[in-house]
Amino acid sequence: MIGLLRRHPAWASYSADLSQGLDNLLLHKLRSLLTMLGMIFGVAAVVSMLSIGAGAQQQVMAFIQQLGVRNLIVEAREAANWPDLQKVRKLSPGLTFQDLRIIQTSLDGLAASSARKRFVPAKANPKPQRDMPTVYGVAASYADIAGLHLAQGRFFTEEENEQAAPVCVLGGGAKANLFGPRDVVGEYVKINEQWFRIIGVAAPQLSLDSGVAGLAAQDANNLVYAPIQSVIFRLEETMSRVKDEIDGLYLQLRPDVDSLEAAEVVRGVLDMTHRKGGDFSVIVPAELLAQEQKTRRVFGVVMVALASISLLVGGIGIMNIM
After folding, report:
1. What's the Cα-to-Cα distance from 95 to each of 86, 116, 117, 166, rounded to whole Å?
2. Cα distance between residue 13 and residue 16, in whole Å
3. What is the pLDDT of residues 176-234, one digit of tens each?
């Protein structure tokens, strides 16, 4: 094959050009090295920029999917200061169990629901090795709604919730934070002055360092899940009239229900019960996912355009050097 190429008429001119080019590269070794480095680092920088951007967007999309595309999430909005909170409370009592009951009767297509009460302990035993875990008081249905998987043990039952049983499930990060690597199912953790028996450990979950569309940043693994009635009756020291009875709702819809229409129903109910106090937000993960996918497509086009311009300008510069 090589012999046939050498006998081809054009081979002589090609071989002469290749030989001349190689001689020039060897003659100007430093210039050739700098040109090669420019090409290598230029391409590597563009590829890295595209990869980092795509990776960050993929993480956000995975987090939104973890929220549940069939779910609606209602979050209580915190007032910026005490006077603002007092003003809001003249209109609205905050999120309550009554809100949840009205939504359950008003929203067709509701498959499951859970209230949530967050509680940050002043102390815990064993002492945390890093940040104090946050206690999530939720209903037994929360595990299915949030897609929470267990690495060990079980989740609590609705009967344990109604009885305000002193049981809990540790997030993977909370378990490592409090107990280290050892098995803890069946052991006890003291939250403030109350002892809770550990009945399960949750599998690792995806967390974000920054908030997303109304959801505050939260280490989803450094959580302690307990029955919401246990949190209210065992851990809440005062039930002030300015404090929200609950601070979140999780609503799971049937597959045939339009999440945007359901969100409008929920907003209408809460606007009525809260007298348009504006102290809540309704988050629709399916809508967030669609917006993020659109943003990802636009971001991809922009990044490709920037990469093309960068490589074109870099190529012109390299040609001038050569």
Report:
1. 15, 10, 10, 24
2. 5
3. 999 998 999 999 999 999 999 999 999 988 776 555 555 666 788 999 999 999 999 99
